[in-house]
Amino acid sequence: MELKLITTPASEIQADSLVAICFKDNSTVPELPAGTASLISEAIAAGEFDPKPLETMLVHRPAGTAARRLLVCGAGEHLDMKPVLMRKIAGAAIRALKPLKHRTVAFAFDVGLDEGLAEALACGALLADFETDRLKTDEKLREKHIDTVLVSVPEITPEIEAAFQKGQIMATAQNFTRNLVNEPSNLMTPPKLAEHARAIAAEHGLKLDILDEPRLRQLGCGALLGVAQGSIQPPCLIHLEYTPETPADASVHLALVGKGVTFDTGGVSIKPADGMEKMKYDMAGAASVLGAMIAIAQLKPAVRVSAFAPCVENMVSNNAQRPGDIVRTLSGKTVEVLNTDAEGRLILADALTYAIRHCGATHLVDAATLTGAVVVALGHIHAGLFVNNDELKESILAAAKTAGENFWQLPLDDDYNDYLKSPAADLPNIGGRWGGAVTAAKFLEAFAESKPWAHLDIAGTAWLEEGKPFLAKGPSGLPVRTFVELALAFGRR
Ligand code: BES
Ligand code: ZN
Ligand code: ZN
């Protein structure tokens, strides 16, 4: 799908469909010819169409426009027209028109489209175009695509152009992440993730280091290797690095760390069969840091940013790690593996230490599908945010707000350390029955070495259980946009 800014007046745009955004007071953007406008008012009066957000109505042969069809999209009150809503409305329009095989779709703004809205429109349209059916062989599915999205504005200013571009960069990066997460685990293995990282580095001029098993052993990444040992798939730790030409502060090195478990059987502490197939998305954290780097390489914030993705497969086998095994982490701390299903924190522990001690990371944010407990606590609406530093917390929440992604802070009080006691090692890898998302975070915090660090538990939000009018069901691509906004904000400090 290609997006283009144009200045053609709404009524003259040659397209399969023109999208009109319709508010509660029956007014529309763009303003429509009187006959068509009254037709919409009539439908609203008759209760056939409610101009509330995400409602749509298709009008055939609209009078006075060159487009074949008109898609009226509800938008609620005028004042509600913020980027978050624009992203959804643009998406809902695309997903309403795509099954109709409309090839060219036009949006038109006869009144000002600000930068935030232009970005959101481009982003929402591209995110809505994503599907999870790559491996379906029915050719008919491929016919349902939109080739061109035209966006008409009174004047194409450099600011609008840049914002429109940024929205596309964001969505393309996020869709890249969603594609990786959607792949089944027989096709998306640690070496495959490394291959993707290699392609990203080559295409976007990033520095790449892939630590393979011998190097991980030499370094002493015992926690990561313990998880990996049950699988025939070789583990790796991916390190992608972006260096700005002139950093705002040369002493800052932001590390984005993503859990890359390409399949999580639970290991010997095996998971129930029901729903186990979902554990292909246990590498969503890794996919999100890779996706974020694609956007960061293009948007060029004035801050050094690295992505670290520890990648393993957590399997059951003759060689698998046993409950009760004690491993030595890269930090030197020993961990008693009381439950082999709490594997994410083990691989992240070594990745955090590597980022800090071997690469000089000064600020760290990890994303991980870490616990079922966070899903119990927050459902599929908010991801859990755990953070040991107030300034970083404010930066992340501000970035998340701009990005339109939801995080809810959960506690990190030291009292929770009482739940993390091992008689035989420095730490156990699980707490007790309660507060599972918090004890997982406390475990990670022990490896952050008092650097400003945040942990995003995306177990409930990395995968959409239900499709939305503006998004396909499946991988959400969270938190790619927050990561990118955070890097941009760091570059402005
Ligand atoms: N990958 C899972 C967490 C998960 C659960 C992700 C549901 C997505 C949806 C993680 O490795 C895990 O199994 N965690 C255990 C920890 C427990 C053994 C302390 C869990 O949450 O049950
Ligand atoms: Zn697990
Ligand atoms: Zn897991």
Short summary of the structure?
This protein has 493 residues and is an alpha/beta fold. The protein is built from 14 helices and 21 strands.
Topology (elements, then pairings):
Elements: E1 2-6, E2 17-22, E3 28-29, H1 34-45, E4 56-60, E5 69-74, H2 83-97, E6 104-108, H3 115-128, H4 139-143, E7 148-152, H5 158-182, H6 190-204, E8 207-211, H7 213-219, H8 222-228, E9 236-242, E10 253-258, E11 260-264, H9 284-299, E12 304-314, E13 326-328, E14 334-336, H10 344-359, E15 363-368, H11 372-378, E16 383-387, H12 390-403, E17 407-409, E18 427-428, H13 436-445, E19 453-457, E20 463-464, E21 474-475, H14 480-491
Parallel strand pairs: 1-7, 2-5, 2-6, 6-7, 10-12, 10-15, 11-12, 14-18, 15-19, 16-17
Antiparallel strand pairs: 2-3, 4-5, 8-9, 9-12, 13-14, 16-19, 20-21
Helix pairs in contact: 2-3, 3-5, 5-9, 6-9, 8-10, 9-14, 10-13, 12-14
Bound molecules: ligand BES and zinc ion (2 copies).
Residues 261, 264, 282, 343-344 line the site of one zinc ion.
The CATH architecture of the largest domain: 3-Layer(aba) Sandwich
Strand content: 15-25%
CATH class of the largest domain: Alpha Beta
Given the C-alpha coordinates, what overall shape results? elongated
Characterize the largest beta sheet: strand count, sense, and whether it forms a barrel. 9 strands, mixed
Mean pLDDT: 97
Secondary-structure class: alpha/beta
Q: Tell me the helix content.
A: 25-40%
Q: Give the termini distance in whole angstroms.
A: 35 Å
Low-pLDDT parts are none
CATH H-level superfamily title of the largest domain: Zn peptidases
Q: Report the count of strand segments.
A: 21
**Which radius of gyration do the C-alpha atoms yield?**
24 Å
